[in-house]
Amino acid sequence: MASGEDSQIGRKIIEYKLATADELAICKQRLKEQQESGRRLKLADVLLEGGYITRSQLERLTKSLDDDSMYRPAQQIPGFQILGKLGQGAMATVFKAKQLSLDRIVAIKVLPKRLSENPEFVDRFYREGRAAARLNHANIVQAIDVGEAGGYHYFVMEFIDGDTVYDRLSDNRRFEEKNAINIVLQVARALAHAHSRGFIHRDVKPKNVMITKDGQVKLADMGLAREVNDYETATAEAGRAYGTPYYISPEQIRGEINIDFRADIYSLGATFYHMVTGKVPFDGPTPSAVMHKHLKEPLVPPDHLNTSLSAGIGEIIEVMMAKKREDRYATTTELIDDLEAISQGGAPFQARKKYDQSMLKSIADTGEMVSIPTAEDLSPTPPNTTNWTAILMLAAFLGLSVLLNLAQCVMSGK
Question: Could you tell me the residue range of the domain that residue 10 belongs to?
Answer without folding.
Answer: 4-53
